[in-house]
Design brief:
Chitinase A, domain 3, 15 helices, about 425 residues, alpha+beta, 4-stranded antiparallel sheet, about 50% helix, 4-stranded mixed sheet
Amino acid sequence: MFSTQGVEESAVNRLVSQLKQHLRCAMRDHRALVAACLLSLAAPGCKGRSIKYDNPVFEPAPPRRSLINKAADEEERRLLGVGMETDDQGTAAGDADPANPFRSTGMQRLSSGPLTGNSVVALVNGHPVFLDDVLAGVRQMVENNPQLTDQQRQMILMTQLKNRLPKYVEDELIVQQVKIKVPKERQDLIRESLEPKFQETVEVIRKKENKATVQELDEFLSGQGTSVEELRQSFYRIQMVEGYLSSLIKVPEKVDREELLRYYEDHLRDYSSEEKVRVAKIVVRPGKGGIAQAQQQADDIIARIGQGQQFQELAAELSDPVNRDKRGDMGWISRGALAPELEDIVFGLAVGDVSAPRVLADRVEIYSITDRHEPSTIPFQQVQTEIEETILNQKREDARREVRDQIRNRGSVQTVLE
C-alpha cells in the first residue's frame, strides 16, 4: 500500500508550512486593524462626512450610503437562486427568509474525475473553487516528482484536499460576504494598510532562508511550489476573513468578578503546587556476609555522613550501579508516587536529613532529602488579570466560531469530497 507520509514530511513541504506559519503569526496581531477598517468608512484624504457602519451581516442594512455595495442586493439575489428549486408558485426556496440570502445545502458532492490544476473541487454559492486555489504548491510538487505514479499522485492530492478544502470553503463563504458587503475601494485601502506588515514578514523569511534579496527568495520559493505573491494573497485573504469576523463578534471588554472567581475555583489545581521532595538514595546490596553485612555497611555510611561526608559523594562511591551513576538522585517525588510506607519515610524528612536504614530482603536503602517544595496556592489577586484575559480569549473564539457557523449554514456548498 502506497503511503503519503514521505511526501507529507518532506523538507520542501515543511518549508512551505513554516513560511505560511510566519504569515499566520503576523496576521494574528492585525485582526483589530482590519475590523476597524471594515467598520469605518472614513479614510485620510476622503472628502465629505464620514459614516459609521452597522454590523453588515446580522443587523438590518443601513441606507444605501453605507458599507453595502450598490450591487450587493443584485448579487445576493443572484446567489439566492443558485441551485435552488422553486415551489408551485415559482418562488425560490428560502425567499421567505430575507435574512438568509444563501440556501444552506451542506457539503453536497460534485462528480469528479482525475484531479488537475483546473479541476473544480467545490462550488461555493455557485462560484467555482479550483484545485489550484487550494493546493497549487502541493500539486506542483506532486506532479514534479518522477517517482510517483499517476495513481499515487491522485491519492496524494485527494488526501491533501480532504485536509484543506473544508477550511478553504468556510473561508470562501466569508470572502464572498466581504466582496458583497465591503466596497472595492475599501478593500483596496485595507490591502494598502496591510502591505507594510507583509513586507516585514517577508524580510523575516528572507533572512531565515539566507537570501540576499526578495527576488532571490521568490526564485527559491518558486522551486518549492509557491511564491512571494502567493504568500501575499494568502496573507490578505486570511486577514480579510479574520478581520471581517472580528468586526461582527460582540464580546464584553470586562468580565465580572463572580465569573472570574468561579473560573479560579474551577481551575484551582492550575494555580496550586503539590508538596514535592527531591530524594537521593543509597542502595547497599548484600555480599558474602548476607543482609546483616549490608545493614552494617549502611550503618557505617550513616556514621560517615554524620562526620561531614556528603550523601551524594558516598552514593557515587558505595551505592549500587544504578544509583551510583546519578550520585543517588531520584529526582522530584510527589505524594502518591511511592508506596505508602516509603512515602511516610521520605516526606517525614527535612532537607538534609538522612533516614534510618530500610532493610529489605535483597538490599538496604538509605534516603536523604536534598530539596523540598511545600504545597502552595497562588492567591486570586495575583492571577485575576491572567484569568480575565483567558476568559475573554475564549469568549472571542466562541463568538468567532458562532459567526463562522452562521455564515456557513447560510451558504450553498458542493464539493468533490465524499
